[in-house]
Every structure is written in C-alpha cells, then in structure tokens.
Amino acid sequence: MDKPMSLEEVLQDLYDSEINAAISWLWDGGIDLGLGDELNGYEADGQVRTVAEAAAWLKDQACKHYPDSGFARKYCGFV
Residue 48 forms beta bridges with which residues? Predict the structure, then answer.
C-alpha cells in the first residue's frame, strides 16, 4: 500500500517547481486553498476540511494548471 503523500512534501515540491500556493484557515471554517498568488491572480481556489484533503487538492490542481512543471512530472506522470 502506498504511503499517503504529506502536505510537507507537496508544499516543498510546489515551491521547488516555482508554483505559488496559499493556505489559510480559521479554527472552524475549513482550510482555504489557492493556487497562484494575490499579485498575479489565482489559477484555482477551493476549501477542504482536512490537511490530507489539502495535499490532494493542491496536487490535483497543480497537475491540471501546470502540466509542464517538474511537479506534474513527479505526481501526475506528465512528460
């Protein structure tokens, strides 16, 4: 069985691939996510309930919006 990906690993790989991301939360309001940044705009935004869901959301959205990145090659099998 594959080990679940960690948020730490996903964030580091996004950073290494120069893909901007944002994460914020209030204790009872869910985890808000963005792929992109305030200055250049967001490619995607969403909300999840758990850190594991945040890692999966970031992975899926980065693969969708940055298919030519090193991140996508590692996580999505894109070449």
Answer: 31
Q: Distances in Å between the alpha carbon of 77 and those of 31, 37, 64, 65, 67?
A: 27, 25, 12, 14, 9
The position carrying tokens 């305030």 is: 38
Model pTM above 0.90 = no
> At 5, is the pLDDT very low, low, confident or very high (cuts 50, 70, 90)?
confident
What does the alpha-carbon distance between residue 36 and residue 27 come to, in Å, rounded to a whole number? 23
In the chain, DSSP finds a helix count (H) and a strand count (E) of: 3, 3
Give the CB-side neighbour count of residue 37, counting CA atoms within 13 A: 7
